[in-house]
Design goal:
Mean pLDDT: 90
Helix content: 25-40%
CATH architecture of the largest domain: Distorted Sandwich
Number of helices: 17
Number of domains: 3
CATH topology of the largest domain: Beta-galactosidase, Chain A, domain 5
Structural class: alpha+beta
Distance between the termini: 67 Å
Shape: elongated
CATH class of the largest domain: Mainly Beta
Largest sheet: 9 strands, antiparallel
Strand content: 15-25%
Length: 549
């Protein structure tokens, strides 16, 4: 009975969406809408954007054999690549990957073999979706697909006959005109922004599509006003999204300049601000710190952004509007998230830290499960997946207002993060995290203050320090310290005033692939002596390089 009621509820919720989908399908396939997509047939590209992301040759070889693994999904075409459009499920990350044509980047690594595969897949796509499809002509998919087609056009067009070139270029022009009418329908704010910028790229690449390009530029202006903060950070506070946005903005600017047009003033200024914010997250290994659903991402793309930054726009140690602090000295780098993490579908990361020494990452956050099953994303959104305070109890206090401040002198840099804890009983507490990075970078100290909590709350309070999978950890016999060995052969010791530390299993999804086994240092408030009648707890810890002790 309960199952039948649940199905009825699902049908009721899906009903309006199905009606809208059917109307859109009827309109898209109608001769009236098809007439709106007619226009000059381009015979070449006027601008070929660069793709700074690194191709994966191993992935390309697997894809060439008809096997595609993406997230938790696995697709096997049994050697017949043209069947991919019949086999892929209509929803999910796998469908998004193939419809966005992101695989073109990887096929570049195969040379002439990649050309043959790309044209086989393109022909199968045109045979199935060339006229119109609600599935394949989703505005965001179209935008990403057009950018990939423009960037990797030689794979499809080099030394091809005139009939094939005409078919491909005509389809790209029709999709660009379609996008000019539908870009505003992209589902999320970030999708709308990237779709508008993708429309700009395609419009400046294809002759006769300058009108759609201007429309995309105007839409991008509006979305940037809503989504880009004063320090250049995107409202998602996601470093990987920041990187993609910066790459796309630079591509639009290059496209405008390559056509001999005058770039609007807002665009050049926005490119500099967004690129500087991307560089803020760059670690010594050339990749990004992992925060708020982002990944380490592609070092080649990060470097391309970093090299394009005007020295006057170089990032500072504090992104005021995005809510990040950065402490650097010697070989050490600390990035702390001090932004507000309240609201739905947010990563509960406020107060979390990243710490690396040279090219070796030591303390990290667990990353994102965006390409995996929903259970992974839910788990990785929680505070327990971040290097910060969490509560192992359903009745734990909720988190309130945030404040932060920093100070520096010749001896080191101090960052203080404070957050209100709401008990729901009128007597609120507070959590204070103080981080001190000594000059030279061989000594990072932390002080964690908890006060105003009930006994049950203190028992459930836990500090987690997630270690990068490359770090080898060994718990001392007295359980008061942990020895850490980094890939660069540095040794570090983690010590605290807790009666006992735990070394537990963790999982790292920050590299963007399958979860990798890792470890975490766990420090419990229950193992730290309380002081005063208020039951306040002050946990102190230190992370010192062994040659600096």
């Amino acid at each position: 009975m309960a199952g039948a009621m649940k199905r009825q509820e699902q049908v009721a919720r899906a009903g309006p969406r199905d009606v809208i989908a059917r109307v859109q399908k009827a309109w898209g396939e109608s001769p009236f809408y098809q007439a709106r997509l007619k226009g000059p047939a381009p015979d070449r590209l006027l601008f070929q954007p660069a793709d700074p992301f690194t191709p994966d040759k191993e992935f390309a070889h697997s894809f060439a054999r008809g096997r595609l693994a993406f997230g938790d999904a696995l697709l096997d075409c049994e050697g017949e690549l043209g069947r991919i459009w019949d086999l892929v499920e209509p929803d999910g990350p796998m469908n998004a990957f193939v419809q966005e044509f992101s695989w073109l980047r990887h096929l570049e690594a195969l040379g002439e073999d990649g050309q043959t595969i790309a044209r086989t897949l393109m022909k199968a796509w045109l045979d199935r979706y060339e006229k119109w499809s609600s599935e394949a002509w989703n505005p965001y998919f179209v935008s990403e697909r057009l950018v990939q087609l423009c960037a990797h056009a030689p794979l499809l067009l080099a030394r091809a006959d005139a009939l094939w070139r005409s078919r491909v270029l005509a389809s790209m022009a029709r999709q660009t005109r379609h996008l000019a009418h539908t870009a505003h329908r992209a589902e999320t704010g970030f999708d709308r922004l990237m779709t508008a910028l993708g429309l700009c790229v395609a419009g400046y690449c294809l002759p006769g599509c300058e009108g759609p390009a201007e429309r995309g530029l105007e839409m991008a202006r509006r979305e940037l006003r809503l989504q880009l903060r004063a320090d250049g950070g995107h409202v998602s506070r996601n470093p990987s999204r920041q990187l993609r946005l910066s790459v796309r903005l630079q591509t639009v600017l290059q496209g405008i300049e390559s056509r001999g047009f005058q770039a609007p003033g807002f665009l050049r200024h926005t490119v500099m601000r967004a690129s500087a914010m991307t560089a803020f997250f760059r670690c010594a290994d050339g990749k990004l710190a992992v925060f708020n659903g982002g990944y380490e991402d592609d070092g080649r793309a990060v470097l391309a952004i970093h090299d394009a930054i005007d020295p006057e726009s170089a990032p500072t140690g504090f992104a005021r509007h995005s809510g990040y602090h950065k402490l650097t000295t010697g070989r050490a780098l600390v990035i702390a998230d001090t932004g507000d993490d309240s609201g739905p579908r947010r990563f509960r990361s406020a107060g979390s830290i990243h710490f690396s020494s040279g090219r070796s990452r030591l303390i990290v956050n667990c990353g994102s499960g965006g390409h995996r099953a929903p259970a992974w994303r839910k788990a990785l959104e929680k505070r327990g997946a971040h290097s910060v305070l969490s509560f192992d109890d359903a009745n734990a206090p909720s988190f309130g207002a945030i404040s932060h401040r920093r100070a520096e002198d010749a001896k080191g840099q101090l960052l203080e993060f404070e957050r209100q804890l709401l008990n729901g009983q009128g007597a609120d507490g507070r959590y204070v995290r103080r981080l001190y990075l000594a000059a030279g970078g061989g000594d990072l100290r932390g002080e964690e203050l908890l006060e105003g909590l009930a006994r049950e709350g203190l028992k459930a309070a836990v500090w987690r320090f997630h270690l990068h999978p490359s770090v080898r950890a060994s718990l001392a016999r007295d359980r008061r310290s942990v020895i850490l060995l980094l890939p660069n052969k540095e040794g570090w010791r983690f010590k605290s005033n807790a009666a006992a530390l735990n070394l537990e299993k963790s999982a790292y999804c920050g590299a963007g692939g399958a979860p990798v086994a890792a470890e975490q240092i766990v420090m419990k408030a229950a193992n730290i002596a309380q002081r005063g009648e208020s039951g306040a707890v002050t946990a102190r810890w230190a992370l010192r390089r062994l040659d600096a002790v």
